[in-house]
Amino acid sequence: MSGNHGDILAYVPLLVLIGVSTAIALAMVVGSFLLGPKKPTAYKATAYECGMTPIGSARERFPVKFYLIAMLFIVFDIETIFLYPWAVTYRAQGYDLKIFYFAEMLVFVAILFVGYFYILGRRALDWDESERAVARDPISPEILAPRPPIRFGNEKSGPVRRLPEPAHVPAYGAVSQEERIAALTSRRE
Amino acid sequence: MLILFWILALTCVGASIAMVVTQNPVRSALYLVITFLCVAVFYVMLSAQFLAAVQIIVYAGAIMVLFLFVIMLLNLGAPQALRERGTLQPFFAAVLGTAFVVMLLLSNSLVALSKVRPAAPPEVYVPLGTVEGIGKNLFDPKQPWILPFEITSILLLVAIVGAVIMAKRRIQDHTP
Amino acid sequence: MITTEHYLVLSAILFTVGTIGVLVKRNPIVIFMCIELMLNAANLTLVALGRHFGQVNGQMYVIFALAVAAAEVSVGLGIIVAIFRTKETINIDEVNLMKF
Amino acid sequence: MNYAANLMSIMPVLIVLATGMIVLLGDACSAQWRARRWYTWGFSLFGVLMALVQAGNQLQTQMATTFSETAFAGSIVTDSFTLTCYVILLITALLAILLAMTYLENRNLNLGEYYALVLFSTAGGMLMACSNDLIVLFVSVEILSVALYVLSGFARTEEKSEEAALKYFLLGAFASGFLLYGIALVYGGSATANHAGTTNLADLNLYLINDGRPSVLLMCGIALLFVGLAFKAALVPFHMWTPDVYEGAPTSVTAYMAAGAKIGAFAALMRVCSALAPIGEYWLPAVQTLAVLTMFGGNILAVVQDNVKRMLAYSSIAHAGYLLVAVSAASVRNEQAHNAAMGAMAFYLMAYAVMTMGAFGVLIYLSRKGRDLQTIEDLRGLARTDTFAAYAMLVFMLSLGGIPPTMGFMGKWFIFSATLQAGQVWLAIVMALASIISIYYYLKIVWMMCFQEPERPEVVEHAVASGGVRATIVLSLATMLVFGILPGALGILLNAAETTVFRP
Asked: What is the CATH number of the domain that holds B137?
């Protein structure tokens, strides 16, 4: 191919762009490293994350529903791959071919729409899978159960004001839900 | 050009070998990304620009991100689960040997291709790889791509159904 | 001067590496990645051959192969997620792939 | 170019696909499970029946006119072989759907997607049978396989089923890698100075007739193509997924997979081999070696199994070996032998599909609530406790073993005589020897059922004794015996090669 680089030479500006952007990014990092003042203190050296000390791995385990959406995204991504050349060439066609093109893509998209409605029907895009369970039991015992007082880490600096214990909090299941809610809310006041 | 080819080819093969050799699946995935990117550049060098873009969007973008997601998911659940045991399977050597024989055979026979049929000139193949070139041919009723195109949508539909069945925790029960 | 044979040999090497990877790795995700590498090697061959013949066929095959790969990825990773959920491990030693 | 004619030529496929989509949508969008239950099951049966009628009609027209047509710019071909494969696949799908409903409900798996996926994979198999271009072949193989991966993992909470799905998926995807690379090399290797490479099978056939000697690249391509298809058809060095997947998948899926996937794979293999027949002397020895390995490997490994599903899996591998003998006989450059072998293969595929569905149907019939029938021990003394199931199983076992007067025997006989006609005498003898081994383990089951005392003599109430399962068993039984005694009534299958496009 040594004689004819016609198609490749069109990419030289792209190459230059990539080179320049890499150089700028590198220059920023290296420049600030070289030129910036460095006065480390103990506080600056600690990791900072919203006031919390970072504990554990940075890798989070995401719930499965995210994967489902990512998987479905890939499928529809491929659809776009087919749509793009179609959209670019559609206008240039004659009338007959336009109808043919249109029908072809219509069938393709219709079949994928069957998949889309299937996804909607199966509620595969819903974020909260336990929607109905929550609806059945609006105030779950976990939410209402008395919790230990929150520790702020400053307990030693002064007396902690505790909420007064209510005289009588019935055990869960001993009385009806409504009574229990009433008892607990009175305690909060 | 030849130098570029050699650099890329070495990177590509090196990254793929590193992908197989490394024991950490996350690193494997990242090496695979390098391989995919090299292949994308090869597509550009072969004047298949549209495919190069698609390669980056679909492979290096979507598919690899999904791979990494899944690795992360499994990693945190059971940190030991993903460690490779590092044992070579007994037939590894045999496979390697035969594979190399096949490769040598291939490369010997491949050299003859240009003698059998000379390569097409650039003015023939350059317009084929652009978006217009792909679109004009892919949807042309006189060419045999219509049926594969339509049944690809069926395949994607099956994939949608499969992903939902496999990955969704709770599908409504049909039994009372 | 880069000839078509350069690309063909390169993709043959990539294909071989992918095949060996499938045979020696034990983690299903990595095995699956090796399979993706094999598919990519085949795609590279197709594009190089299509250019050699001055035909669009090679690139068309690659587009369809890409769609196939995407479909496989979404179903395959779905299966891996599902098996992890029921089993809490995905090591192939326990999945025991090559039992006769 | 007449679009309507193109669509007409794949009408059965379109009907199946449309049914699948309607079932899928209707199931996902309706709220009443009771209505949904009958709707998904009934509608998919209805659709398959419609497609069957349409395919039968087309087959009769085809036979009358002996005119094969390519459609969609030569990417598919509708000839008598295609339509015969359509009919066999649709009958398999019909039986699979009939079997499924109560079994799935018993295992709490009754989702509408099951039927949709069975329909889609049937359509994939049908497209494999009609493909005239390797890329259509590739995409339709994937449709068939991806649907089957999901189906084999359909019991989502069970470890075994999930493992089966993973194993099937990984090896299947590995095989598709080989298939794609093989296609690429065939594309490159079929080029000569006169023409560029091609993946169109009819063109390839023509080129090979003219050029004669294949290039090394083409031979590599053919080898990889065969490896890919051998994985899908479970031929012996590439069979390791079969027993585990058959064992782990829900039994109704296993039944469909054993029959449907094999029919599709062999239809495709037959197409590729007929296209490559002009250079048969280069690759035929490899196929024959595979056939011998598959027959002996399948049969010998089946002997040592004590799980019924695993045993049937190995037996299906052995049957793939017999079918491969037919493929080998069809690849000689002798038109008469080619036609005879193709017809024999169609007949055998039909017999195999029916007897496999029947045998798995009996297993489903015998499964208790929430538990599948596992070992051969479980069949002990079945003749006392359940006469119907025992005698049905007896006939299926005799048929699988190739004992007259069953369809299995006639199928083997046709393949045997076609092989002799093709001049491959040694292969015919090997096939006869292998089927003698197989009789041992089929008779072991018969012996266990009929000549052993049951552990508990009382009649056991089986969970899945529903109408659908009974209907499947009775239908397969009737087919098995009627066409075993009167094989001429299925002459249309034996003439499957009447109008094929390829000339050896």
From this structure: 1.20.120.1200
